[in-house]
Automatic annotation (TrEMBL):
<protein>
    <submittedName>
        <fullName>ABC transporter substrate-binding protein</fullName>
    </submittedName>
</protein>
<comment type="similarity">
    <text>Belongs to the bacterial solute-binding protein 1 family.</text>
</comment>
<dbReference type="GO" id="GO:0042956">
    <property type="term" value="P:maltodextrin transmembrane transport"/>
</dbReference>
<dbReference type="GO" id="GO:1901982">
    <property type="term" value="F:maltose binding"/>
</dbReference>
<dbReference type="InterPro" id="IPR006059">
    <property type="entry name" value="SBP"/>
</dbReference>
<dbReference type="GO" id="GO:0055052">
    <property type="term" value="C:ATP-binding cassette (ABC) transporter complex, substrate-binding subunit-containing"/>
</dbReference>
<dbReference type="GO" id="GO:0015768">
    <property type="term" value="P:maltose transport"/>
</dbReference>
<dbReference type="Pfam" id="PF01547">
    <property type="entry name" value="SBP_bac_1"/>
</dbReference>
<keyword id="KW-0732">Signal</keyword>
<keyword id="KW-0813">Transport</keyword>
């Protein structure tokens, strides 16, 4: 599929952008499915766009399954949408294949590019060109059960990982079965690898997470799970997510994203919770940041209109409408300030974290790295093999797969 995309990209012509037409033009927008509330909100924002641009109609399509496989297949078959969602994790590959339209020539001073958070915008830059504009994001923060903390005589959330482990022991077996809910996937562990100077990938895109420095951060997780017995995975307590095990009071603390706030508020209204920055590790602040951009298909027939759609959705007015309900955080600093999220008791730790977060991005071939890490780390966590052996096995297998794909 990668080879086919490359061939199609070489064949595509760099057509000059045409001015907006006076006749109606339809722009196709594709994204993955979200919650019904999210879908309804996006459709409303798109209606507002069409009201302002009466000659542009938006055909919005939800791809509910195997999203990236569908997009890649359609890019090869020249049937891809004009504008579509692109996760930061998947961006490096598509940006390198010459199938996305660079947006630099469309961006004007009025668009106010400097208003975007640098960390988020940089995830969609390749060879000094911008290929996507981030529509929203989330970092991770510590969620803690206030009632459980009061019961255990704990007044403040932990500030360091040592404190978290200590608190976790005190909270285990009281109002909650376990003190802490652990999510072992690389998407939640990367900042721990970096806390001691480790890296996920090197400059060539090869996996390097099994370095001695990287293992130090992961050892914290294994020791808490195996020795302290104060943390649990979602499968240990019969739940499907970190948010659910926290909401069901199976754990007193969990590290989750902004998406957990509306979920917990609606699904578990009886749980009184607070949020705090992710505890420091090795005296370093750390968290993850996940973001998604709108990108333009290089073969789009109506690029000027496609840009108007992207510009509206990621502009100040469109973004304020999109993120105003709080289920997503705005990527523009001015919008976050207008909405007061930097002062919001629950969201302010998430907003502050963007300045020091590790972007969720691991080179051009993320599946090789993510799948091998996740499989082997869970094995180490369960005590089926030593951590170092598991991580070296994952790293070697990932690099063999990358070599075969490159």
């Amino acid at each position: 599929m990668a080879i086919a995309i490359a061939i199609i990209a070489c064949q595509s012509l760099q057509l000059p952008s045409k001015p907006l037409t006076s006749t109606a033009v339809t722009i196709k927008l594709s994204g993955w499915g979200g919650s019904p509330v999210e879908q309804k909100l996006l459709r409303q924002v798109l209606q507002d766009f069409e009201a302002q641009y009466p000659t542009i109609k938006v055909k919005y399509e939800v791809i509910s399954d195997q999203y990236m496989d569908v997009i890649k297949t359609r890019l090869v078959g020249e049937a891809a949408p004009d504008v579509f969602y692109l996760d930061a994790l998947e961006a490096p590959f598509l940006m390198s294949q010459n199938v996305l339209e660079p947006l630099d020539s469309y961006i004007t001073t009025k668009f106010d590019l400097v208003d975007f958070e640098d960390t988020l915008l940089n995830s969609f830059k390749y060879q000094n060109q911008i290929y996507g504009l981030p529509k929203d994001y989330s970092t991770l923060a510590l969620f803690y059960n206030k009632k459980a903390f009061a019961f255990a005589g704990l007044s403040n959330p932990p500030a360091t990982w040592d404190e978290l482990r200590n608190y976790s022991k005190q909270l285990t077996g009281k109002l909650n079965k376990y003190g802490f809910g652990e999510i072992p996937e690389l998407a939640r562990q990367a900042y721990k690898i970096k806390a001691f100077g480790g890296q996920l990938v090197d400059q060539n895109g090869s996996a390097t997470f099994a370095s001695e420095a990287g293992l130090q951060g992961l050892e914290l997780v294994v020791n808490q799970y195996q020795k302290d017995r104060s943390s649990a995975q979602k499968s240990d307590v019969g739940t499907n997510s970190g948010s659910e095990m926290f909401g069901q009071s199976k754990v007193a603390m969990v590290i989750e994203g902004n998406w957990a706030i509306p979920y917990l508020t609606e699904t578990f209204p009886q749980v009184e919770f607070g949020t705090a920055p992710v505890p420091t590790i090795n005296d370093k602040k750390g968290t993850m940041v996940f973001t998604v951009a709108y990108v333009m298909n290089k073969q789009a027939q109506h690029k000027a209109e496609a840009w108007e759609l992207i510009s509206y959705l990621t502009g100040k007015e469109g973004m304020q409408k999109w993120t105003g309900t709080g289920f997503a955080l705005p990527t523009r600093k001015s919008v976050a300030k207008n909405l007061g999220y930097d002062q919001d008791p629950l969201r302010s730790p998430l907003v502050a974290g963007v300045n020091y977060a590790t972007p969720w991005q691991v080179g051009k071939y993320p599946s090789a790295i993510v799948n091998n890490f996740d499989n082997q780390f869970v094995s180490a966590l369960l005590g089926q093999q030593p951590l170092k052996q598991a991580m070296l096995k994952a790293q070697n297998e990932a690099n063999q797969q990358i070599k075969a794909m490159d």
